[in-house]
Amino acid sequence: MNKCTPTNRVRNHLAPPFSDLDSLVSQFFAPARAAVAASGWGGAASLYEADDRLHLEIDAPGVNAEKVEIQVENGQLTLTLERTLAAEPPKFVYNERRFGKVTRTLDLPDTVDPDTIEAKLNDGVLHVSIAKRPETQPRRIEIKQG
Hints:
Blueprint: H1 5-13, H2 19-29, H3 32-39, E1 45-50, E2 53-59, E3 68-73, E4 76-83, E5 100-107, E6 118-122, E7 125-131
Antiparallel strand pairs: 1-2, 2-7, 3-4, 4-5, 6-7
């Protein structure tokens, strides 16, 4: 029995300052296990904030840029990567490498601007970055007489 369980419940209930980011990360990485199980490879991913941007990096060894598709629709970023075998595959004696498509979908937070998405594939890593929107400042509204 874990003696920390009640404390964890209280902490989660109080919505820590990073709960939105925690939720975003949890939502994004949850389907990864299913993707790995279905295709045999899944592209490990990292999600972080830096330089006023949200950054997503996905391992994509053996994937060509032509086999990467990135779409934004209804507040969701969908990435599809495909690792293919040669047209004339060799007669394997032994093979641990996996091939196929992997699709990952991320609900974009309201704090980013989907029109600023940039992507590059370098050394087997797909890097996607999205600019964060400037924080809106509260403003006082003048009330007019009459």
